DNA sequence: GTAAACCTTGGAGTTTAATCTAAGGTCAAG
DNA sequence: CTTGACCTTAGATTAAACTCCAAGGTTTAC
């Protein structure tokens, strides 16, 4: 498949301005130009854009995303020094984000549950209190997994 | 515990300017003022700030964080209409973020693994390719869980 | 052949989230 | 009783990430 800029923007729900901006920022270059000068994009570019948008949605800056995209294993070369340590640092960052999100998810879960059945004590009412409660439960209900 | 603005900022690794800015944005008010006019914060405020910083780190805007903080169950009142639907929408958002992050984590995992043992085919080299590969594996290795 | 709907560039403007500056008050140490 | 490290306010400035605009070229549709 190939897309013109507007088609790709529509397909992945962003603006054409954003695509031109990402090009300037060296995040996503067009796969080529048509004879008339229009940019075109292939499925590879589409996947890259999808990745950029996902990474952005979970709190990576464009600079960090650029770093993620630069992580490449080159089987012959000396990738294990540089690439692996960068990938590992990013992996730690991602794992930390996953843990924070898990906490927020469990707190929201509790709030939604409480709104249905009233299983939370009546005095607990905010997301902060749900987080506190959850922390207590993790401490007392699972003394040692 | 109570903290002056500088102490709280140092404890949670942000700037005093950020704390004053969050106050203006109605995200975090000081627990009170000392006779000399200085702000002070208690552990409750500290927890709220910790939540704000965590939520920010996983890609919530300050506006979204304000909405998260406003989610409150009031056991007597009509919370199940408004609160529950807001909490559910946020929960869906959080789950979506979790899925994106999981994908990125698995791709980074594969890259780190490949850098150690060379378990990835030598032609696979970028985070995008790791994502592709992972998608294929999920399709073929688990035809029906 | 001309209007509508695309696309091009360069550059200006906006929003979000801080971050900094200026002018000054508070307080403990020496 | 002054120096230094805090704190106060209001307002200006910055950086990141878009978003919009002007002036114009290209394609399809009637
Ligand atoms: Zn309810
Ligand atoms: Zn309440
Ligand atoms: Zn390697
Ligand atoms: Zn390669």
Automatic annotation (TrEMBL), chains A, B:
Residues 84-111 form a coiled coil. The keyword Transcription regulation applies. CDD domains: HTH_HMRTR (cd04770). Residues 2-71 form the HTH merR-type domain. GO terms for molecular function: DNA binding; DNA-binding transcription factor activity. Keywords: Coiled coil, DNA-binding, Transcription, Transcription regulation. SUPFAM superfamilies: Putative DNA-binding domain. This is Zn(2+)-responsive transcriptional regulator.
